[in-house]
Amino acid sequence: MKFHLHAFGCKVNQYEGELIREELSRLGYQSTGFSEAELLIVKSCVVTSESECKVARLVKSARNSGKSVWLVGCISENLRARLSNYSVEYFETAAFRDKFGITASRISGFASHTRAFVKIQDGCDSFCAYCIVPKLRPALESKVMTEAVSEVENLVKNGFREIVLTGVHLGKYGFDLGEPRYLPELIDRISGIEDLLRLRLGSLHPQEITPALIKAFYDHKLMPHLHISMQSGSDRVLKLMNRRYTAADILRVVSELQNVPGMEITGDVIVGFPGETDRDFKETMAVVEAGEFAYLHVFPFSFREGTKAMDLKESALSRQVMGERIRLITSLRDTLFESRRRRYLGRSLPVLVEESKKGLNTGFSENYLKICFSGQVRRNTVAMVSVSEFRMPVLYGEMK
Q: Which DSSP symbol is given to 264?
């Protein structure tokens, strides 16, 4: 049977989707494009109402075109209700693995990518007030270090020069094994793999960015870019969210990270948590500006059934207030985005080429700046590029 797999959302979903693709291919299923497929497999995401809507739209489109649909992974009751008039097979991840006898816990490639994600951790026990994930994912579970290193070694052997370590709650790697210091040790072990050029981390909570982790950016193949899951810059809102850090903690780790040569920091912010006041929002804006974030993912708050935030529904912000705050923070984000990138004009940066078509190449610098340049160079190789121009949202240059 011909199938098309679409994985929504985070790096963890992308990894789990690739694992499914590889295993089904071994069982005789044929991976193909959407239009040719008889079966659509959706690795779903329901973290936000927007992601849930995207899943529902794709499933409806596939069913209307006569395809069979399997929905795998995080499946909320709300999503089931959205699709109640459509014939869909639902599988929790464990049930899907059981159905096909899938025992593999590692991938050997990453279709159409030059970088590979490696999931080293699953589960979350934080129970943030807005998040449904702990109820849809298993308990904390870390991949044994030797297995993680072996998986990366195999991917590097298969031609991947850049690896991204990811997890549902990456900062909890090793905690279920009684080893909260495992992540810096794992970074050390992976950095010793000879042909690996670049190692990156998925997002971390501010309180998980320890001195040992910051030190790893100096001593290893860890690239100078980190994504911080901050969500708010207001201590009052952070407490309501059940986040275990303060605005001062965010600014402290940002300041320490910015001492790393070339470091660029990105982050997440949720706007409009129930009861967020003008003062709370201004505090968030102040933290974003002081932190000089290179990019900010801005999410409007959405209520999720089964979360503590549902108890605060009477404090929901109006659409008008929410819209104005989104406008203000995205304007600040774009200003910082441009300012940070213009600092690189006239500088030379190593770029790992992800696309190369007709002499036009696109790739990312070590600190995750997207750069386009002309010249004859092969995909998945590193080129030194002299940056000469910025056109939102990309830097442009010439190969040296």
A: E
Whole-model pTM: value is: 0.93
Distance, in Å, from the CA atom of 79 to the CA atom of 76, rounded to the nearest integer, reads: 5
Count other Cβ atoms within 10 Å, centred on residue 205.
22
Q: Which helix (H) or strand (E) holds 249?
A: helix 247-257
Alpha helices, H only, 27-129: 49-64, 77-82, 93-100
CA pseudo-torsion sign 183, 184, 189, 192 = positive
Q: Taking each helix axis from N to C terminus, what angle separates 182-191 and 145-157, rounded to the nearest 10 degrees?
A: 30
Between strands 2-7 and 30-31, the pairing is parallel
Specify the pLDDT at position 180: 66
Within 8 A by CB and 6+ apart from 107, the residues are 15, 18, 19, 22, 116, 118, 151, 155
Token representation of residue 37: 């497929």
The string of pLDDT tens digits covering residues 197-233 is 999 999 999 999 999 999 999 988 999 999 999 999 9
Specify the DSSP class assigned to residue 173. T
For the segment 167-185, what is each residue's pLDDT rounded down to a tens digit? 999 999 999 888 767 899 9
Q: Token pair 């963890």 is at which residue?
A: 12
Beta-carbon count within 10 A of 339 CB: 11
